Amino acid sequence: MSENKSVLQWTTQDTALMLKKEDFSDAAVHFLCHENKLNGKCLLALNDQDFTIKPLINLPLRDRKYLYLYCKSLQNKNQNVLSDLGLLDTSSVSLYNSHHNYKQDSEYCESERVSPPISEDGQYQRLPPEKVKAFLSFCYVVFVTWITAFVMVIVHDRVPDMKKYPPLPDIFLDNVPHIPWAFDMCEVTGTFLFTIWLIVLLFHKHRFILMRRFFALSGTVFLLRCVTMLITSLSVPGAHLQCEPRNYPMADGSLFGDLQTKISQAYIIWRGAGMSIQGVRTCGDYMFSGHTVALTMLNFFITEYTPSYIYYLHTLSWMMNMFGIFFILAAHEHYSIDVFVAFYITSRLFLYYHTLSNNQALMARDSTRTKVWFPLYSYFESGVEGIVPNEYDTPNEICTNFVEFLKHMLINVKELHTLVAAKSNSATNQIIESVSKTSIGENNKTK
């Protein structure tokens, strides 16, 4: 048996057998062991550079990652053999040994950011999609955005008089001239980042986990923004803004005034996502900047869930985030403190959430406090173990999954139709039997 042999004694057949036990595809086993004659000694001698060139570069992403992790595991268990072969160097550091530094310059595997799909006890990590939770998080963010739109209507009607309360002193706004088209450019930048994020979601294998986290974090930040907008109304940041409270003929002087009118105006804001390029103009919603929240959240999610070797994409994402913030300030639509607080809160909440989700031991050790202060996290991340790896589906796999989803939906519809038809027939038969019994009874009475 190959388990009882030293790795150096493995033949190509032994290696093929072990790879099959590690859940490698038959095509990958044939490619490695039969076409390229991979044996135990070759397996131990593989390094990071080998995974970036042919023939290993021709392997599918899943099998390439599995092979990389399997090699590192074997090298970790055979340190003495590697030393005898003269192959023991920094490239053979195990991914599983937490007492060693992770290798950070590999262009193939993001070992500093992505946990292996197999845990230390040899069991696969649980990364269930949990589509119901993703749907609930979507409902949560829709509900929060509706509350935000309604609060924006309220604060618009409470905006301070521009003649009585002039713009506050601001280091940036006082030294940078007003650029009229800058705010539209900020929203164009955010739209471009959102498009990139949709593409990442489309191809990522764990897209439902990503969606759940994006909706949960976005909803939480915007819910906090509702509070800060409502409790304190800052003066209008620029004289170019035409902001004044709206007077309703049916207003009763209360905080909510004419509720029906406010709801209709909130719907206009919600439908246009609060964007000026959609024809939405609001005032008073300054502390803190919602546009900065959106830009920063998209930037952090794009850089977190794309491989680190796509550095040009990360650089572009950060540049668009910073330029978007500059455009907000150049348009004099927000104070500098609005933008700074928005960036700080969004980035800290993102890092806090992912620090807990990437280190389940922290949550287990202090689960009570986590449930109290962040109940959404405790619910949404209860089924996730470890870091979500950046693995992607091919277009063919996406099409196949979509077709299977449609087939599953059609089967459910047919079953539902059959069930309804069966119940309808049963009810009809009961009515006919009841009518028949009544008719027979009446005939007997007549006789």
What's the helix and strand layout?
Elements (H helix, E strand, L loop, with lengths): L11 H10 L4 H10 L4 H6 L15 H17 L1 H7 L45 H26 L25 H22 L3 H25 L27 H13 L18 H15 L6 H20 L5 H23 L1 H6 L1 H7 L1 H6 L14 H52 L1
GO cellular component, one term: Golgi membrane
Keywords: Lipid metabolism, Membrane, Sphingolipid metabolism, Transferase, Transmembrane, Transmembrane helix
Organism: Brassicogethes aeneus (Rape pollen beetle)
What would your notes on this structure say?
The protein is 59% helix and 0% strand. The chain has three domains: 2-92, Transcription Factor, Ets-1 (DNA polymerase, domain 1, Orthogonal Bundle), CATH 1.10.150; 131-380, no CATH class; 395-433. By secondary structure, it is mainly α. The longest helix has 52 residues, at 395-446. The chain is built from 16 helices and no strands. Mean pLDDT is 80; it is low at 89-124. Helix 1 runs antiparallel to helix 2, helix 8 (207-231) packs antiparallel against helix 10 (290-304) and helix 10 (290-304) runs parallel beside helix 12.
Kindly list the characteristics that best describe this protein.
447 residues, mainly alpha, 0% strand, 3 domains, single chain, DNA polymerase, domain 1
Report a brief summary of the structure.
This protein is an all-alpha fold. Helices cover 59% and strands 0% of the residues.
Strand content: under 5%
Separate helix tally: 16
End-to-end Cα distance, whole Å, is: 92 Å
The strand count comes to: 0
The major pleated sheet works out as: none
The radius of gyration computed from the alpha-carbon positions, rounded to a whole number of angstroms, is 30 Å
